[in-house]
């Protein structure tokens, strides 16, 4: 999947280049390179249980709402500060868990959109819906 995304990205870049310059382009997408790039987070320890992307940051995770779940990705400091200020919480996982139970996942998503915050309602895939 990541290889296909990279191939499409390179193809689109070639089209933009041609539109801007009139010149043709040639690109190769090596799956080994794509795999190597995809392994960077693991290589740098970001996906370990205490890593930023592995559960070590309360600003990146899935939280239960009053109905459904929300996915939070407040990794950048400006998003994190804004979230803490608006929710009036201390940033601990427990304080966020408590705060997110006050609304439904869809209500939180609407709230986050209005406040430019990286939070969405988790939606069930049609293939996994019961």
Automatic annotation (TrEMBL):
<dbReference type="InterPro" id="IPR003673">
    <property type="entry name" value="CoA-Trfase_fam_III"/>
</dbReference>
<protein>
    <submittedName>
        <fullName>L-carnitine dehydratase/bile acid-inducible protein F</fullName>
    </submittedName>
</protein>
<dbReference type="Pfam" id="PF02515">
    <property type="entry name" value="CoA_transf_3"/>
</dbReference>
<dbReference type="GO" id="GO:0003824">
    <property type="term" value="F:catalytic activity"/>
</dbReference>
<dbReference type="InterPro" id="IPR023606">
    <property type="entry name" value="CoA-Trfase_III_dom_1_sf"/>
</dbReference>
<dbReference type="InterPro" id="IPR044855">
    <property type="entry name" value="CoA-Trfase_III_dom3_sf"/>
</dbReference>
């Amino acid at each position: 999947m990541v290889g296909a995304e990279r191939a499409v990205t390179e193809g689109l870049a070639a089209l933009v280049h041609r539109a801007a310059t009139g010149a043709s382009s040639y690109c190769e997408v090596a799956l080994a390179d794509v795999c190597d790039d995809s392994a960077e987070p693991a290589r740098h320890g970001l996906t370990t249980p205490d890593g930023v992307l592995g559960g070590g940051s309360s600003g990146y995770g899935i939280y239960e709402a009053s109905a459904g779940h929300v996915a939070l990705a407040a990794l950048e400091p400006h998003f994190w500060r804004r979230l803490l200020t608006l929710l009036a919480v201390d940033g601990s996982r427990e304080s966020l868990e408590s705060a997110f139970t006050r609304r439904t996942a869809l209500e939180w998503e609407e709230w986050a959109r209005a406040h430019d915050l990286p939070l969405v309602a988790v939606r069930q895939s049609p293939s996994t819906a019961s």
